[in-house]
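Homework-ish question, so no full write-ups if that breaks the rules, but can someone show me the predicted structure for this set?
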Amino acid sequence: MSSTFDTVADIIADTADIPREEITPESHAIDDLGIDSLAFLDIAFAVDKAFGIKLPLEQWTQEVNEGKAPAEEYFVMKNLVARIDELVAAKAG
Amino acid sequence: MRLEYFEMIDRVTAFDREGRSISVRSVVPKQSPVFEGHFPGHPLVPGVLLTETMAQASGYLLLGLMDFTHMPFLMAVDKARFRDFVGPDAALDISAVLEHEGSGYAATKARISVDGKRICDAQLRFRTMPFPEGLDDQMRAQARRIGLMEAMDA
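A: Not a homework solution, just the prediction itself:
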């Protein structure tokens, strides 16, 4: 998996006190890792700082709540990592 | 300051939208029930109330920067350091600067000084949420009372 995955998994392990080996590309941050909304804000802060981006958490949450996107789209690790890579690329471009 | 009412901010002395910072002044009261227990015969402002003071300064900064569209609620205190004691009558200079505006949260750095000497500092984070019903009017009134609106217009 990418270095983005490793960085994000390290952040989650450190921030949410989850054993690093439990975090895989298929892990669902909420359903599998048990990360709550407050912990996710902690993770977002660390991710924002690490990658120099702004995770659009409010937009994602709204889309999920309104049924416009499945939660897996943003909260399964491999998809979260893909979204982060997109944001980093958009910033660089 | 009215410690027992958690009214920690006396006056906003400067608000810098471009610099994303605020300066605030507060004077510790001569007497307060807080001092009866903390500590008997040796009155000191508790560290939690100094933290609350930094949080309120940061909160008014965020309210101003967001033009009162959202309410900041304290969610994390990092790297808090209390470097000296604060007693009755101390005039506190409090400053806060926005470090990062995230989606649904914001991070600040804040500090308190007395006579130019640093007393404490911390990194604070706030969840920013739509106002609970009726609270925005209350916060605007409080902001007017402490001179935030005036400082924002200056």
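Now go work out the reasoning yourself. Hint: The longest strand of chain B covers residues 117-130.
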